[in-house]
Design a protein that fits this description.
By secondary structure, the protein is mainly alpha-helical. It has a domain at 85-286. Helix content is 72%, strand content 4%. It has helices at residues 2-21, 23-30, 36-41, 54-57, 61-64, 75-79, 86-110, 132-153, 157-166, 169-191, 196-214, 218-241, 260-322, and strands at 115-116, 120-123, 126-129, 245-246. The strands form two sheets. Strands 1-4 form a two-stranded antiparallel ribbon. Helix 7 (86-110) packs antiparallel against helix 13 (260-322), helix 8 packs antiparallel against helix 12 (218-241) and helix 8 crosses helix 13 (260-322). The termini are far apart. Residues 58-74 have a biased composition (Low complexity). The chain crosses the membrane at residues 169-190, 196-214, 221-247, 259-279. Keywords: Membrane, Transmembrane, Transmembrane helix. Residues 48-74, 304-323 are annotated as: Disordered.
C-alpha cells in the first residue's frame, strides 16, 4: 500500500515539475501582463510595408485625360479661308462691273432689246443710262464674291481645276470674249425676228456648253441658275419701283423677255472666272508684301548691330598698330 502511495507521489511531482518547466511558454499566452519580458521575446517582426508613390498611385490629370479632338472650323470660317483683303477685292469687282459690265450691256441696248427711260446717255455707239454703272457694279460684287466662297465650301477635282485655270489672265479674258460673242448672238437673233422658242434652244445649248468650258463645277451651275432666276426677279421688282427701262417686245407679262434668263446664265462663268482670278492673285500679292515687310524689318533690326560692330573694329585698329 505504501508502495502505491510512493508511486502516486512521484507521478504528481513529475507532473508539477513539467508544468513549471513549461511555465514560460504558456504564460506568454495565458498570463501576458505578468511576464512582459517573455512577451517581448516572442514578438514576431512586423511585415515591411512598401513605400507609397503618390505619382504612381495618383497619376496627374494631364496623363489620364483623353486628348480632346480638334475643333472643326465653322461654315463661315471654311467659306472665308484664304480670302484677300475684302476692300480691295470688292472694290475691283465693282469697278469691273461699272466699266466692263456697262460696255457689255451696250450690245443689247444697241439692238433696242431694252430702252432706257431714266437718265439715258449716248457715248458714241453706246446707249446706256447713268443708273446702269452702279447697278452693274452691285451685280458684279454680289455674284462675283459668291464664287470663291462657294468654291471653299465645295472642294472637288473640278473646283481645283477651274481655280488653277482662272489663275491665267488669258483664260479669264477668253471667257469674257466668249461672253461678248454670246450676247451679240442673242442680240442678232432678236434683231432678225427669230421666234423666241428658237432663241431659247440656241441660247440654252450655248449656255450649257459655255458653263462646261469655263466652269464645270456643281456650284458654278447652281450660281448660274440662281443668277438666271434671281436677277430677272430683282430687275422686275426694281422696275416696279423706278421705271429705269422697258422691253418693247416683252413676252412675260408685258414686262420681261423670257430668253434673257439664258443671258444671265452664260454671264455667270465669266464673272466667276474674274472673281477667282482676283481672289488668288490679290492673296498672293498680300502674302508677298507681308514677307517683304518682315525681311525689311529684320534687315533694319540688324543694321544697328552691324554698325556697332564696324565702329568697334575701327576703334581697335590704332591701338593694335601702336602695340
Amino acid at each position: 500500500m505504501s508502495h502505491i502511495r510512493c508511486k502516486t507521489a512521484d507521478r504528481l511531482f513529475a507532473t508539477r515539475t513539467n508544468l513549471n518547466a513549461c511555465r514560460p511558454l504558456w504564460s506568454v499566452f495565458a498570463c501576458g501582463p505578468r511576464n512582459t519580458s517573455n512577451v517581448n521575446r516572442w514578438k514576431f517582426p512586423a511585415r515591411a510595408r512598401p513605400e507609397s508613390n503618390d505619382a504612381q498611385v495618383s497619376p496627374s490629370p494631364q496623363d489620364t485625360a483623353a486628348p480632346s479632338p480638334a475643333a472643326s472650323p465653322s461654315l463661315l470660317q471654311r467659306a472665308l479661308a484664304g480670302s484677300p483683303e475684302w476692300a480691295g477685292f470688292l472694290g475691283t469687282l465693282a469697278n469691273s462691273g461699272a466699266l466692263t459690265g456697262t460696255l457689255l450691256d451696250g450690245i443689247h441696248s444697241r439692238m433696242r432689246l431694252q430702252v432706257y427711260d431714266t437718265a439715258p446717255i449716248v457715248l458714241g455707239g453706246l446707249k446706256t443710262s447713268l443708273a446702269v454703272p452702279p447697278l452693274l457694279a452691285l451685280f458684279y460684287v454680289v455674284l462675283g464674291s459668291l464664287h470663291p466662297l462657294m468654291d471653299n465650301l465645295n472642294p472637288s477635282p473640278e473646283t481645283t481645276a477651274v481655280r488653277s485655270r482662272c489663275n491665267d489672265v488669258g483664260f479669264v479674258a477668253l471667257a469674257f470674249g466668249v461672253l461678248a460673242a454670246l450676247l451679240q448672238l442673242s442680240a442678232t437673233l432678236y434683231d432678225n425676228g427669230v421666234p423666241y422658242w428658237q432663241i431659247h434652244l440656241i441660247l440654252g445649248s450655248a449656255a450649257l456648253l459655255n458653263w462646261r468650258l469655263f466652269d464645270g463645277t456643281r456650284q458654278g451651275i447652281l450660281l448660274a441658275l440662281l443668277c438666271g432666276l434671281g436677277a430677272p426677279a430683282a430687275e422686275l421688282l426694281l422696275l416696279q419701283v423706278v421705271p429705269l427701262w422697258h422691253y418693247p417686245r416683252a413676252d412675260l407679262g408685258g414686262a420681261f423677255v423670257s430668253w434673257v434668263f439664258w443671258c444671265y446664265f452664260f454671264y455667270t462663268p465669266a464673272l466667276g472666272g474674274l472673281a477667282r482670278y482676283l481672289w488668288s492673285t490679290m492673296r498672293e500679292a498680300e502674302l508677298w508684301q507681308a514677307e517683304s515687310g518682315r525681311g525689311a524689318a529684320a534687315a533694319a533690326a540688324a543694321a544697328p548691330a552691324a554698325a556697332a560692330g564696324t565702329t568697334e573694329e575701327t576703334g581697335d585698329a590704332p591701338s593694335k598698330g601702336g602695340r
